[in-house]
Fold this sequence. Notes:
By secondary structure, this protein is mainly alpha-helical. The chain has one domain (5-155): Cytochrome Bc1 Complex, Chain D, domain 2 (Orthogonal Bundle), CATH 1.10.760. The protein has helices at residues 5-18, 55-72, 85-88, 94-103, 123-126, 129-141, 157-167; strands at 30-32, 35-37, 43-44, 52-53, 105-106, 115-116, 151-152. The model is unreliable at 12-18 (pLDDT under 50).
Amino acid sequence: MRLSFPSIVLLLCGAQISLAGTPKSSIAVKDDHGKYLDAAGNPTYEIGKNGTVDWHTYSGYRRFNGGCETCHGFDGSGSSFGPDLTARLKTLSYTDFENVVVNGKRDLSGGQTLVMPSWGTNKNVMCYLDDIYVYLRARSDGALGRGRPAKHEPKPAAAAKAENSCTS
Ligand code: HEC
């Protein structure tokens, strides 16, 4: 579903007012049944003027903080077991993000012994990969603070359908 012209204007105005730091590349230009896409066609977040986050960003908050935070710290801010992803996502592309989460990463140069596990067979991660990505993207852009987003859009029917077919 393409956004009508007025909603695109609203969306861009909202983004300018509430998310002063949001890079142009992160701005949602397409609403695919409640899943927002940037101009390059990659998943992105949508945060309304009153702070209401889209469903996928909210879902990503829950999924990320339900496993990844043990190493990457609550809200992605890093710990002694894993890097600060809010910093890493500033340069990591969507494709590279997917690759590293699916396949893991082990960089043992310089005495580094920490390992990023591979999650490719874990449905609790794979079925929510885009959600985790948009959540971290919002965190990395400074568009979303730490902690549970106070308000979120309801779960879109398309998201429920995709989740059912992915997890079953
Ligand atoms: C057991 C600890 C651990 C867990 C759990 C973990 N990670 Fe990692 N992750 C790491 C480490 C360590 C690295 C750095 C690996 C390196 O650079 O060699 C890393 C790297 C990454 C990177 C790449 C950063 C970059 O710049 O290349 C991403 C993205 C990432 N993790 C996402 C996740 C997500 C999403 C989850 C949850 C599904 C997760 N991680 C769970 C330890 C972990």
